[in-house]
Amino acid sequence: MLKIFISFLYKTPLHILYWGLVWLFFYLFFSTGSNNPQFLFWFTSILSVISIITSYVFAYNLIPNYLLAKKYWSFLLYTVYAIIFTLFGVLVTVVFGFIFFFNLEFQNMPALTKSSSVILVCVFLIIILTSGYKILSHNYKSIEEKKTLENKFLHTQLQLKEQELKFLKIQIHPHFLFNTLNTLYGFALKKSDTAPDMILKLSNLLDYILYQVDKPSVLLKNEIQHIEDYISLEKMRFQESLQVNFTKSLFDEAIQISPMLLLPFVENAFKHGAQINGVLSININLKTTEDFLIFYIENTSKQVTTTKKGIGLENIQKRLEMLYQNKSIISIRPEANQFIINLKIPLKDD
């Protein structure tokens, strides 16, 4: 009730204007055939009061508390009471004019003011217009509230998706870092000239993984550079037991992709790859056209089938679904002594 009262006070000027127009309508309409302005003033004023009371009863009580609450029988009952009140009010108004202004001479009253049916039609018209506006206003507010809730829900979902996407981006397996640091430690003990270069590549790679991941997109050539740094670090660790072939065919070096989109595939190949005849062999081919990026990677493996893809592949598949929905194509094929992945993603939005 307090909210209704505050809302009413806020809208008081509009209410005054509206009922002023209603009063003017009654006055002009019932002035036909009348030369008694004093009677018209009081007659119009009483009809306006009846219309105001009944309209507000409907607008602020019966409609919100019964009709919109789906209490139809109660609404019908109170509507009957409101109609009886209106009929009684109109009858009293006619009798008031009949007695006090025309000295019980009914034939002297203006034609429109002594027709109860005409008066009732005018009053009910105002009540219906006011109630109809209230219903339309309620429906509009309901639609706006629904849209606001939907927008909040979508915004929350978007935030959750962004957080999930960010989380998926940074999940490169820690075994790489541990192994690289162990290798770096070994080189440092030997005072190898390779150690500074290894530290620089590792620093660049960690910067990319930890900080550049927040960007929505990066240049493809940057992703390639960090893939090559990653491979270089693994070559330092594996020495002669690693053979990597990385070929590239780029349509445009300014192409942008989501960061850490391809690197997890490479990380997965090292993590789950196996040495055949003492050598881990990895072949990588990256190709771009005007419309697509095509990425192929295979590594030697001792498992013909696999039930565990590793967290890298699971995460990258989730990211692909979030970024491209059904527009990306990924094929994961474990074969005899090989594990093959084919990826095709669009470079342009449809």
TrEMBL record:
One of its GO terms (cellular component) is membrane. Residues 164-242 form the Signal transduction histidine kinase internal region domain. It comes from the Bacteria. Keywords: Membrane, Transmembrane, Transmembrane helix. InterPro entries: Bact_2-comp_sensor_kinase, HATPase_C_sf, Sig_transdc_His_kin_internal. GO terms for molecular function: phosphorelay sensor kinase activity. Pfam families: His_kinase. Coiled coil: none annotated. The chain crosses the membrane at residues 12-33, 39-63, 75-104, 116-136. PANTHER family: SENSOR HISTIDINE KINASE YPDA. This is Signal transduction histidine kinase internal region domain-containing protein. It comes from Tenacibaculum caenipelagi.
